[in-house]
Please model this.
Amino acid sequence: MASVVSIDKLTKTYENGFQALKGVDLEIEEGEILALLGPNGAGKTTLISIICGLVNPSTGKVMVGGHDVIRDFRQTRSLIGLVPQELTTDMFETVWNTVTFSRGVYGKKPNPALVESVLKELSLWSKKDNMLRELSGGMKRRVMIAKALAHEPKILFLDEPTAGVDVNLRREMWQVVEKLRETGVTIILTTHYIEEAEEIADRVGVINGGKLLLIEEKAALMKKLGRKQLRLELSEPLKVLPESLGAYNLTLSEDGTALIHEYQGEEGQGTIASLLSTLASEDIHFRDLSTRQSSLEDIFVALVGEKVGENA
Ligand SMILES: Nc1ncnc2c1ncn2[C@@H]1O[C@H](COP(=O)(O)OP(=O)(O)OP(=O)(O)O)[C@@H](O)[C@H]1O
Model:
């Protein structure tokens, strides 16, 4: 698939000497949903701001739709829609005007039919004559998306689209993003919420300390780094792990009532069959068994060495 955004050896050192990006290479593919995951201060907003032409890079190159973001700022900016973290818009303006004016900012001719279709797409049509301050939080967020879509961008950046919103609204936003993807827009979102990346992204990039630690198809990432765990609840507690089980990657729970076997991806299947037959021959019986697969959250914690989430 073709790249719509191409980032080469990008660094950013702010005026106070702080290096927020330390050499980022990234290709963003047309039509994908890419989630950039990282703790506070990782450099996500800096990266987005450079792509959008709002912050100058220190070194490196960023191309959007084949154009350089500095030299061809107007062209690249018109290809991009940005939904910032903060709701930055006039609360006394109507929904209709907010979206219509935004189109004008990009020098695009008025197109009421397009504004109508964007508002309908985002379920805002019935609110078109309301002032923004009269809308619920979820509707205001949707207006920010409509505003960013008014000039028909090919790439949409959503910076923390669901920060601080409740679970229902978060799900609603995910549906909005899914619908937008169907229209062919490439979507890049930054998030603290692993669940969000897990739910809607095609690829996940993990940023920490100004570096892109990895970028991978979500499914491949889960397969590659995901660990599985098999837990056997024993009928009779064991005092120690029998030597005959030494070949398996096993731990005995503290109270001796459960055996826990950890394995990576799909590698464990043969091992499990052999483990179960060894247990039977050792006369060790179990009354229950459960398996657990590590989530993106576990993978992230292992990579970044810290937890992100609601309090991040
Ligand atoms: N204008 C600036 N001058 C100096 N340092 C800055 C400036 N803007 C950001 N930084 C620093 O750069 C680092 C990266 O910030 P950035 O906003 O890109 O992170 P982020 O990953 O988006 O974090 P968050 O999730 O909190 O929004 C932070 O340590 C921040 O304090």
